[in-house]
Specification:
This protein has 270 residues and is mainly α. Helices cover 51% and strands 2% of the residues. The model is unreliable at 79-86 (pLDDT under 50).
């Protein structure tokens, strides 16, 4: 007999894992790889429960992971997942689209040569100013491969979009997948676990059903345009504030995301 879940979080967990499982199957991730990743994440969470040293026995009790696995994970190199640095391509796009040094009088991004000259800075200068820890040529090639930047007839490069939208299935899209979902899940988890008097992060959504396809499309277009405007406005402000705060050695982080899910008729039962 199947046991009914006693904690509503178990039902929520199953729902959260469904889209992740679809991505896992599509990417060829098996239960063994997934289990190892889950063990690492659970161990990391257990170790974060106390500022003092958490024993293997205590970690095993909190997570259900065998003590032999706990010991192995703690002793192995890179046993805990490292934070991915900010995507170099996205960072270059952000500066190119918002920094006045790289804009026309109209506010549009300037076409940039590789090297700066008396008329203004070049792409290599942009990479240095954005503090991207990669060779400028590597960053440029990534933007060209993604068709985000195109060469012009006068030996400059033109930015075609303000958004980093990697091609389906490549490593850049996997990095974007992580960078988008992880902060949202962290914010939602904080709100779920926060005490009565603790500050909660802003996390809201609008949900409607019983809409025609035409209405769904109208909502999608309106929401996409307004969300893009908001993201570009905050992006410009954040870059400006970052330049100001850089002199103080500040290390605070801020993430704003947006998502739109126009559900297909076949998905309505879900």
């Amino acid at each position: 007999m199947t046991r009914e879940p006693t904690d509503p979080f178990e039902t929520a967990l199953a729902a959260l894992l469904e889209p992740l499982a679809r991505a896992m199957v599509a990417r060829g991730v098996t239960i063994g790889t997934a289990s190892e990743a889950l063990k690492k994440a659970l161990l990391q969470a257990a170790l974060a429960t106390s500022e003092d040293e958490v024993s293997d026995s205590r970690a095993s009790l909190l997570t259900g992971i065998h003590r032999k696995d706990i010991k192995r994970l703690r002793q192995s190199d890179g046993n805990l997942p490292a934070r991915r640095s900010c995507n170099a391509a996205a960072l270059a796009i952000s500066h190119w689209a918002t920094d006045p040094d790289y804009q026309e009088a109209s506010g549009a991004p300037r076409d940039l040569p590789r090297q700066g000259d008396k008329t203004g800075p070049g792409f290599d200068d942009l990479v240095r100013k954005a503090r991207i820890d990669m060779a400028a040529g590597t960053v440029l090639q990534a933007l060209l491969d993604q068709e985000i930047v195109t060469p012009t007839d006068d030996d400059t490069y033109r930015l075609l979009t303000h958004a980093f939208l990697p091609k389906a299935g490549n490593n850049e899209q996997v990095a974007a997948y992580q960078a988008t979902l992880s902060p949202h899940l962290m914010a939602s988890t904080h709100n779920l676990l926060s005490g009565q008097n603790e500050e909660r992060y802003f996390d809201r959504a609008v949900r409607y059903s019983h809409l025609s396809d035409h209405s769904v499309e109208e909502l999608r277009k309106t929401a996409s345009a307004r969300a893009q405007d908001l993201l570009q406005e905050i992006n410009a402000l954040a870059r400006k504030l970052q330049d100001r705060d850089d002199e103080d050695g500040s290390d605070g982080q801020f993430v704003l995301g947006a998502y739109i899910l126009p559900t297909r008729p076949a998905d309505k039962d879900e």
